[in-house]
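Fig. S4 source data, part A: sequence.
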Amino acid sequence: MSLTLSDVHLTYPDGDRTLTALDEVSLHVGAGELLAVVGPSGSGKSSLLAVAATLLRPDSGSVVVDGVDTGGLSAAQRARLRLEKIGIVFQQPNLLGSLTAAEQLQATQHMRGRSVRRQRRAAAELLATVGLDGKQHRRPHQLSGGERQRVNIARALTGEPAVLLVDEPTAALDHDRGSQIVELLAEVTREHQVATVMVTHDTEYLDHVDEVAVMRDGRLTPSVVGAHR
């Protein structure tokens, strides 16, 4: 399980100009590794996640997900790859208000054709993994912001992905809950042996990650500050 981007270049049209979002970006994240990508707004972090998720096709360069070179895949094949190999933790959990925590996960598993019994068992196990044992029957309004983010993380792990992409997971949380969420991401990265990329503007929680890279003006460089758990 791994994610590799090699010399990825991505541009957008911007009126009469062309805007460079990613400028020859390369990275490699192996199984069980958590990479934090930090940088200011507009530096290219969101574009990096979109390309890694195969939601955007780069102008040049390669994106390899769990050994699959995505460059030659059709739109339908990329959608299948995302379903089977990529988990995404969005900045806002966007949970369905009418569903319980367990049902949020079961709805995602239903898309993969799993049996109802297997859905229920997997949902209970994942919610316990993220610290929500006993809260599987609660709906979003009955959960705290940190707990809703935990459901968000569990939902991203339901397909046993090879790659986990995380977008600003602490943006709406206070310091203590933010620290707990990043620590949880480090734990599930190791336990599930996924290759995790977390983009964030917040540098407070980097002790929990394996590596740090800095995004600035579309370029990605390793941080000079070593990160450690």
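Fig. S4 source data, part B ends here. The longest helix spans residues 175-192.
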